[in-house]
Structure formats: structure tokens, C-alpha cells
Write a sequence for this structure.
């Protein structure tokens, strides 16, 4: 019974940490282009689709960082 009490707080802290990282990852995804002409939904979806083709999904979530870097190179901040 003591072991269960020791495991639960660590699982809870891991879950909270994961949720915090997920929240930070969602808020840091680029959504505005520095070029006002390209700053629309159609261009955003086209650029994101190209980034997803160039950097397919991989285990561990590394592909999200690659997509963000790719979008930054295309002018999205």
C-alpha cells in the first residue's frame, strides 16, 4: 500500500508536466506571416501541407518541431 502512494504522486506530476508541454507547444505554433499578402488561411494551409510532406510524422513528436521550423522558414511567426 505504501508503494501505491509513492507511485501516484510521480504519475500525477508527469501528467501535469506533459500537459504543460503540450500547452506550450500549441501556443508556439506559427500563425501569422510577416508578408501581409501571404497572411491568409489558404497560404497557411498550403505551407503547412508542404512542411508535413517534407517532414512526415515520427515517433516522439519531433515532427512538430520540424513543422514549426519549416513554417518559420516560410515566413510564419
Amino acid at each position: 500500500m505504501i508503494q501505491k502512494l509513492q507511485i501516484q504522486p510521480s504519475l500525477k506530476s508527469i501528467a501535469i508536466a506533459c500537459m504543460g508541454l503540450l500547452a506550450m507547444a500549441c501556443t508556439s505554433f506559427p500563425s501569422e506571416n510577416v508578408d501581409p499578402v501571404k497572411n491568409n488561411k489558404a497560404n497557411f494551409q498550403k505551407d503547412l501541407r508542404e512542411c508535413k510532406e517534407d517532414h512526415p510524422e515520427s515517433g516522439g513528436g519531433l515532427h512538430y518541431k520540424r513543422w514549426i521550423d519549416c513554417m518559420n522558414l516560410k515566413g510564419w511567426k
About this structure: Residues 47 and 66 are 13 Å apart (CA to CA). The helical segments are 2-27, 41-54, 62-73. The chain has one domain: 2-73. DSSP finds three helices and no strands in the chain.
